[in-house]
């Protein structure tokens, strides 16, 4: 036995020595593990735990400094240090945020300064949403309280004539609400997202907004964006114009919901959101144009560093494009990675490499640890990692396609590159889409194989040309053929979305399943030897995770007013299906079951449902009293229910204290899981009744 373990240890050491140049690629993985460890805690770590993590980081780094060329310090010490640094970075980022405020549950008058204006998609008139900074709540109970330290988002009425601009002081009567809690234990945590996004909550205007003080002039950027959108829509009306404004200004409000759904069902929704794909096309076109212009000058070609100049020109064009489209967070992340690519080109390094990805991932994780839990960063890192690793493996094969002359070989080379990119990037992000959106688009590879070349070769280049032609008023020369390309993409999206099984609903993936997939993908992409294929087993386990866990049989909404019962292949919701659309959408996504009314269940009579052989009772408002004999759990939506002695009861008071409830019907008896027990006590988890920290006025000076 001792000889066996010694032999296996020597084999592992040999594998690590052969891959020692790849060890640095695992630094962001260690940071991610530390960040995930912090966010999985049920309560905040105390001083002893923080000192322990800091000690691990110091000891690990000290071990490496003492023996920098030894394998054990680099693997064990470096791994422990990166995990500890990730944990501490997440703790620091959490406690730098101001607490979530306690917003009033009644209508109140809000006064604040507009910092951003967003047009929300709507089939009718467009609706504007204001981001208000320094908001003050003007009512008797909140009088004298300091301004909110977070952004308050207020949705204006559709008939509001106000034309808001950043810097404007507005006053509006609105109904406010805090960030919504999870609809089921383990569901999407919008409170955590709002906590790290710097938002306090949202509201809906009950009246028209009024301006206070002098009205600032419209910012040049906002005005430019609106003028560009107006000129695009004038030439390209309808859905074609909506796609054009989406890729050139970042706003797709002109698209109907049916077309948005078609893009989503075909796996082409990423074409409407400005991110890495669009930025790469813009920078690629700009680099090619700069190289072409420089090649026209003999002196520049012979004496200037044309490659570096073109790279910087592409980066400048990318910065302008990101700013023009609103500088959204995914685009900013992509711009960070693009800047690293330009740096690699200038310094003579490989543009697309795993080392460049590791540097970019470390920067992103240290500056925004909470982004690791969100879909955009997960999809970006998974896609780029798969592309970089795939390029390493297939580079010799792709080179053979261009060794011999022939135009058809070059065409085949480009088609192979596009197919490889669609397959690798799309395949790497499939589980992320399943985990966050509960859907699977089987035809996404084919749709992207046709749509992405159209976007890269026709739509965006012509769109950029139209921007240059707009000062002379001849933008239609480029917009009209651009509209042809967009029309082809729209037809493709509508056609693919109508195919059988174009969009499959899958049950929610647990966190450990997504972690298994990501770790398996890292193992497959970051190593070079044959043992890299061990990661496939982890990826298969992650993909199967949604079908391996036990699903809840009953769900109770966070406010205790809506209940759902899993009945075979349907999810029965009552007492009034459709009354809580957000909660029902989350339940549908979690269980991948169609929603039908609860009244049609055979186990329910006159608003009283007896489940699990009479051990669980569900009583709606107005239902007859329940018999307590043999009852183990009572779920009641009736406020006058006296309950049963010794029987556990779930009602509005229980959800007020502990959030949404999930019930599992086991042979040994029903098991109840609450949102409070799942998330624990964290800074982003609101207190009882979903209340934040009171915004108290300053004490009077004595």
From TrEMBL:
Lipid bilayer topology: Multi-pass membrane protein
Domain named DUF4131: residues: 49-207
Keywords: Cell membrane, Membrane, Transmembrane, Transmembrane helix
Signal peptide per UniProt: none
One GO cellular component term: plasma membrane
ComEC/Rec2-related protein domain: residues covered: 248-530
UniProt keyword annotation of Cell division present: no
Record's subcellular location: Cell membrane
UniProt keyword annotation of Magnesium present: no
Transmembrane domains' residue ranges: 23-39, 51-69, 75-93, 235-256, 268-290, 302-324, 330-347, 354-370, 376-394, 415-437, 443-470, 477-496, 508-526, 533-550
Entries under PANTHER family matching the protein: DNA INTERNALIZATION/COMPETENCE PROTEIN COMEC/REC2, RECOMBINATION PROTEIN 2
NCBIfam families: ComEC_N-term
Name used for this protein in its record: Competence protein ComEC
Organism: Gluconacetobacter liquefaciens
